[in-house]
Amino acid sequence: KAKNEGRSTYHFFESGMDAAIQKRRTIEAGLRLALAKGELRLVFQPLVGLKENRITCLEALLRWDTADRGTISPTEFIPIAEETGLIVQIGEWVLREACRTAASWPSGVRVAVNLSPVQFKNKRLFETVEAALRDTGLPPTRLELEITESLLLSDNEPTLKTLHKLRALGVRISMDDFGTGYSSLSYLRSFPFDKIKIDRSFMRDLKSKGDSLAIIKAVIGLGQSLGMSTTAEGIETEEQLAAVRDQGCNEVQGFLFSPPIGAQAVADMLAEEMANRPKLRRVS
Ligand code: C2E
Ligand code: MG
Ligand code: MG
Ligand code: MG
């Protein structure tokens, strides 16, 4: 009996692996054609400045609309795009599309683009960013690049050099999902980030775990001493907003203000905000 159970467990595991590999292959094959087929699109989520009381930036987030499997989440396909190297081509499209869209926004509004560590391995990243800015006419100071902690793990020197060159151009560099990686603190020492985005897991636990508030408070304080601005991700409730505001957080992002929305909805939102300045209803 025990032998049989062992067997079926093994078979179950094996077919589970098959399904995962099969799914991965399907995604990979589809992803190779996605750009050419026009299946990729960007949505944008507002970042709201608490002092400015307005939208200061919008983060570009990738969406993939497939004919047969609906819209696929970036958390599902970005890792595959990274493994296959497709992220370099896709990432360049994201960069250009984001800059092109942002060029039509009011001049005080920036756009944030997520960069994969794999894009940094490509020697031409700096030139790619420079060309996207030049071709779209977006001033470098209106572009923010979000990178995750894992980036700095791999070959530090060329990466740091690229980051410094981008920064010298006027582009801002943000550390994304701060607090989720291994050595967040040492990264803050190795590169002068403009912005720290505190991971949304700390907001989620704000109420249940007193520790989260202590950590948020400490990170905001750290940002202040290092001259880096802080953004709280994943703000969903008024309570979370009040908590991070009380701690002196500079900027917030989350479903409380807006989910990621399409380019046309962004244009409408920014136009309405310009008309109603200086007030933004959600934050007052
Ligand atoms: P991220 O850069 O940390 O982006 C924030 C994610 O949190 C987005 O998920 C956003 O929809 C979600 N989010 C925002 N506010 C809230 C909230 O209040 N509550 C909750 N529960 N979630 C919220 P999304 O769009 O699914 O993107 C997931 C991740 O995929 C991103 O995390 C980013 O790491 C990656 N990603 C997305 N677009 C790109 C891209 O163009 N290039 C690269 N390299 N990565 C991308
Ligand atoms: Mg991000
Ligand atoms: Mg993030
Ligand atoms: Mg995140």
Automatic annotation (TrEMBL):
Top-rank taxon of the source lineage equals Bacteria
Report TM segments.
none
Q: Which residues form the EAL domain?
A: 24-274
Q: What is this protein called?
A: Diguanylate cyclase
Q: Which species is listed as the source?
A: Devosia insulae DS-56
Give the source lineage, highest ranks first.
Bacteria, Pseudomonadati, Pseudomonadota, Alphaproteobacteria, Hyphomicrobiales
